[in-house]
């Protein structure tokens, strides 16, 4: 893929249906079944994922992906796996330079954290289905607000889980 086809691929990926093998693992289904609220990004792939967890899942544009900057490699055509590595490294450099996340992504992250805090009255559990880069931003924002990450599983794979507790 070149730079242009990669951007098209990202759009198609978020709009794609899930493969039958992409069913949520049992532990994730149990979390959602026991949650008071399940909400997903309003991008089709994430929202379908949230609905697989619970039929009454809501959606929110606040939870959309915060796209990492995709570097231009002067028309180079490389495999998707190479683009993934290059984009991740470029995102890390952009973050260190203060060039990522974009201001609107930071604002959206704060708004999403505000909304989550409004939903998490004592003993109220919320399951959020979102995207990798945005999940990182939201996790960092929650930690900065004093939330504690109490569990993590699945690394950065699909259906990975981060569990946070609000420290009052």
What does this entry look like structurally?
It is a single chain. By secondary structure, the chain is an alpha/beta fold. It has one domain: 3-Layer(aba) Sandwich (Rossmann fold). Helices cover 47% and strands 14% of the residues. The chain has six helices and five strands; from the N terminus they run H-H-E-H-E-H-H-E-H-E-E. The protein has helices spanning 3-15, 26-34, 44-53, 80-96, 103-119, 132-144, and strands at 37-41, 58-60, 126-129, 148-153, 161-165. It has a three-stranded parallel β-sheet with strand order 2-1-3, covered by helices on one side. Strand 4 (148-153) and strand 5 form a beta hairpin. Helix 5 packs across helix 6. The longest helix has 17 residues, at 80-96. The radius of gyration is 17 Å and the shape is globular. The termini are far apart. The relative contact order is 0.16. The mean pLDDT is 91.
CATH architecture field: 3-Layer(aba) Sandwich
Number of domains: 1
Which class best fits the helix and strand makeup?
alpha/beta
Q: Would you list the SSEs in sequence order as H and E?
A: HHEHEHHEHEE
CATH topology: Rossmann fold
> Sheet with the most strands?
3 strands, parallel
Number of E-state strands: 5
Task: Give the CA-based shape.
Answer: globular
**Which CATH class applies here?**
Alpha Beta
Please estimate the helix content: 40-55%
Assess the beta-strand content as a share of residues.
5-15%
Unreliable stretches (pLDDT < 50, length at least 5) are none
Give the end-to-end Cα distance, rounded to a whole number of Å.
48 Å
Count of individual helical segments: 6
Q: Report the radius of gyration as a whole number of Å.
A: 17 Å
How is the largest sheet built, in terms of strand order? 2-1-3
Determine the mean pLDDT: 91
């Amino acid at each position: 893929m070149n730079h242009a086809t990669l951007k098209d691929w990202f759009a198609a990926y978020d709009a794609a249906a899930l493969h039958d093998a992409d069913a949520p693992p049992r532990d994730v289904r149990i979390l959602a079944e026991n949650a008071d609220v399940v909400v997903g990004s309003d991008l089709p792939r994430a929202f379908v994922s949230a609905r697989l967890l619970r039929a009454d899942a809501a959606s929110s544009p606040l939870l959309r992906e915060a796209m990492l900057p995709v570097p231009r490699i002067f028309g180079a055509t490389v495999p998707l796996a190479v683009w993934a590595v290059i984009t991740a490294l470029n995102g890390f450099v952009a973050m260190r330079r203060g060039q990522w996340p974009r201001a609107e992504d930071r604002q959206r992250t704060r708004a999403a954290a505000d909304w989550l805090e409004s939903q998490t009255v004592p003993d109220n559990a919320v399951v959020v289905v979102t995207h990798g880069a945005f999940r990182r931003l939201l996790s960092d924002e929650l930690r900065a607000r004093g939330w504690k990450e109490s569990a993590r599983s699945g690394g950065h794979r699909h259906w990975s889980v981060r569990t946070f507790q609000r420290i009052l």
